[in-house]
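User: Structure please.
Assistant: Input sequence and predicted structure:
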Amino acid sequence: MTFQIRDRMKQKVLICTDAIFYIEPIGSLDELYRQRQRWQRGELEVAKDYMGKGAGLKYFFSNFLVRRMMIDHTFIFPKMIWMFASVVLLFLRYSPVILGLSYLIIYGLYVSVSIVNFLCVELLLKKFENERRFYSKLFWVVFCLPLYNFICSWFRLIGSLNESAENKNWNSRGFKEESGNIVKVVKGDVRNLERK
């Protein structure tokens, strides 16, 4: 709906800072896995339908969807590359201490971004004393958000891969089912290697 308003009516959609709504929390890793894949696939479909000619990098500052796609999709890959590169660097005899310190610095940067977001929400909740008090007690979550976002970025990457596959079924498999399939494929590959 947001994109239809922006595209067809040429209107802007603004945030309503004094609206409060409550949602049910995700009950399991399986639900989170399915939800993030659906969101990712939906975002890619919306981008395909509404970005049109304004999808170039030169529209980074004028089209928020280009910014969103750059942040959500382009910045996922450095996370993945750094994770795999860390393992390779250990085999190349890089210092585990230096790698550990680099992870601590990266974690600290992510926590600082989470703290800024937390403080912004605190300001938005200024008018709502009960909600602000409840939210303030959850400050500890900012220290868990980097790990949570890292896990969600993997789920989103899988959602992107599933979107590009021929099967356009929105009822994606759950985390347990897909991880079980991965184990089967790896075991099959190992058996094939052993035969050779």
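The mean pLDDT is 81.
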